[in-house]
TrEMBL record:
Keywords: Amino-acid biosynthesis, ATP-binding, Kinase, Nucleotide-binding, Proline biosynthesis, Transferase. PANTHER family: DELTA-1-PYRROLINE-5-CARBOXYLATE SYNTHASE, GLUTAMATE SEMIALDEHYDE DEHYDROGENASE. It comes from the Eukaryota. The lineage of its organism: Eukaryota, Viridiplantae, Streptophyta, Embryophyta, Tracheophyta. NCBIfam families: proB. It holds the Pfam family AA_kinase. GO terms for molecular function: ATP binding; glutamate 5-kinase activity; glutamate-5-semialdehyde dehydrogenase activity. InterPro entries: AceGlu_kinase-like_sf, Asp/Glu/Uridylate_kinase, Glu/AcGlu_kinase, Glu_5kinase, Glu_5kinase/COase_Synthase. Residues 58-303 form the Aspartate/glutamate/uridylate kinase domain. Gene3D superfamilies: Acetylglutamate kinase-like. GO terms for cellular component: cytoplasm. This is Aspartate/glutamate/uridylate kinase domain-containing protein. The keyword Lipid metabolism does not apply. GO terms for biological process: glutamine family amino acid biosynthetic process.
């Protein structure tokens, strides 16, 4: 499956010249048909800038804490995780290689430890410093439940899944990175879904701060993985529909469908961070998404609350916010009236 992956970036567009994948909806299921690009027509409903999705074969889906857990009480959002697993099943069965990066261990561990009454720290205090021992302990407590849930749901759907816990320190090692890629390739070749999270319980970033391979949250971990495993598309799932011109709670906030550096970079306003358990925040997510896109892997930031979000994305529907390295060129062509 991997022989055609010549370069870290743009692999799919190169492969697209010979064949691509088309999804169509038959009642309740995706049907996947490989067809030659010379026959390719873009459906009327499809955003023309998103036709590249038809050739995406390897996708990373990063799932944020706010998707995995419920805002009301911090417990697992079973319906959302179940819907995601069902969608991933459809993708895997249609020949798409799916790699998940999931957050939620800290949030889940916190929730459990409060329930057992063994932790007194407030969530707000816990979120202040990721290096807090309590936060590490929460991750250790929550990770097993998190992966058990994915594993249970996937096995009920007859999909095999696997757990990969990594640290920044691992990524700084060339042999580790090679082993990681080999293992991921081997898993996806067997139609097993790799599920990544940071191994928070033992992670430190001491003495490795100035290294490009350091990640500090799961957004940046997903970005590193996208390059390492030569993904064709990176999807960030979160609790809002995409990037807005200002915090989505503000009445005149507008969803940005395609992020144009020149137009949006200095204009977008960001709200206060942070949900406890989350890291990074929206401004950081945008910075990461643009960097990944510039390197050649398109990124879509969208809601993890949709039952059919993956189908919509792979049908080329204009949902969420697209980051693409050609976005500025599209904008230029538009203003030139091309
Ligand atoms: N301009 C903006 N557009 C969209 N979301 C924003 C914006 N500013 C702040 N946010 C907030 O960013 C949050 C998502 O970012 P983040 O908490 O990092 O996601 P996650 O941790 O789930 O990956 C949303 O809950 C949203 O309210
Ligand atoms: N590794 C942590 C995730 C931290 C993180 O990046 O959270 P988020 O910003 O919600 O994606 C956990 O499992 O809780």
């Amino acid at each position: 499956m991997q022989e055609g992956r010549e370069s870290a970036y743009g692999g799919a567009s190169e492969r697209a010249s010979s064949a691509s994948i088309h999804f169509s909806l038959t009642p309740g299921v995706y049907r996947c048909v490989a067809f030659r690009s010379s026959l390719w027509t873009i459906p009327a409903s499809m955003d023309s800038h998103r036709h590249f999705v038809k050739s995406c074969r390897r996708i990373i889906i990063k799932v944020g804490t706010n998707v995995v857990t419920r805002a009301e009480d911090g417990k697992f959002a079973l319906g959302r995780i179940g819907a995601l697993c069902e969608q991933v099943k459809e993708l895997v069965e249609s020949g798409i290689e799916v790699i998940i990066v999931t957050s939620g261990a800290v949030g889940m561990g916190y929730c459990l430890l409060r329930q057992y009454r063994t932790l007194n720290t407030s969530f707000a205090d816990l979120a202040k410093s990721e290096a807090q021992p309590d936060g590490k302990a929460c991750a250790a407590v929550g990770q097993s439940g998190l992966i058990m849930l994915y594993d249970t749901l996937f096995s009920l759907l007859d999909v095999a899944s696997s757990q990969l816990l990594v640290t920044s320190r691992d990524f700084c090692n060339k042999d580790f990175r090679k082993q990681l890629v080999d293992t991921v390739n081997s898993l996806v070749d067997m139609q097993v879904v790799p599920i990544f999270n940071e191994n928070d319980a033992i992670s430190t970033r001491e003495n490795i701060k100035d290294n490009d391979l350091v990640f500090w949250d799961n957004d940046s971990l997903a970005a590193l993985l996208a390059a390492e495993v030569k993904a064709d598309l990176l999807i960030f799932l979160m609790d809002v529909d995409g990037l807005y011109t200002k915090p989505p709670s503000e009445p005149d906030a507008k969803l940005i469908h395609t992020f144009i550096k020149e137009k949006h970079l200095d204009k977008v306003q960001y709200g206060e961070k942070l949900e406890p358990g989350s890291r990074g925040g929206m401004a950081e997510k945008v910075r990461i998404a643009q960097r990944v896109a510039d390197a050649g892997v398109p990124v879509i930031i969208t809601s993890g609350f949709l039952l059919d979000g993956m189908k919509k994305i792979l049908d080329g529907e204009e949902i969420g916010t697209l980051f693409h390295r050609d976005a500025s060129l599209w904008q230029k062509a538009k203003s030139n009236g091309d």
